[in-house]
Design a protein that fits this description.
- A 9-stranded mixed β-sheet has the order 2-1-3-4-9-8-7-5-6, with helices on both faces.
- Strand 7 and strand 8 form a beta hairpin.
- By secondary structure, the chain is of the alpha/beta class.
- The protein is globular, with a radius of gyration of 17 Å.
- The protein is built from 6 helices and 9 strands.
- Bound molecules: zinc ion.
Amino acid sequence: MKVTVVCEYNESMESEIVKRAYPEGMGACIASIFEGQAEVELLRSDEQGVPGLTDEILESTDVMVWWGHMFHAAVPDALVEKIAYRVQRGMGIIFLHSAHESRPFKRLLGTTCTLSWRECGERERLWCVDPTHPIVQGVETIDIPHEEMYGEPFDIPTPDELVYIGWFEGGEVFRGGCVFHRGRGKIFYFNPGHETYPTYKLKDVRKLLRQACDYIAPKTEVWEHFHCRHRDTFSVPREKS
Ligand code: ZN
């Protein structure tokens, strides 16, 4: 399996508080979650978009992981369309935290994806909604000591699978773990991960994200031209080894 992590680098990553949470860099911390599970490639997004994300990398990626905040608008239309098309052909994609505002997420979901928020380091507790779901095994509740509050209403389509609801000590609740199906691909959205809190170092969060990665990874080879009815020969999807 190949996992490609796209993590934004902006000036807040240079601040003391973020460096304290992630001395190695938040992107490196996120990438380390999947080491041993997959071949992992870490790409930086910035005001130039995602310069390192070539067609070759996109086509060879089984699961993409996306964290962004300030530079969503820098991701060009052509790349947004390529990512959406790749998901429709089977690539899994995990959108983390403020990636709810990213262009690929909004393109794939088709809604504004807006939410309410408050940034004061509240405690969050994630409650699993479906104890039979593969993503929640061994991590049915997760306590996060400090997080940015994300609250309802969250303008998303009704999730195909609602996995977690987050509760915040200020009283709000949020659909913080959701799976969507698009074509042959699966999308997982997970709300925790504001850059000033070391959430991606928590053991349970890492376990949950590895299980999410396994769950949304494509299980068969993708038909490159499954939409084309007039090809002379069709390749038949095969079980992945
Ligand atoms: Zn945030």
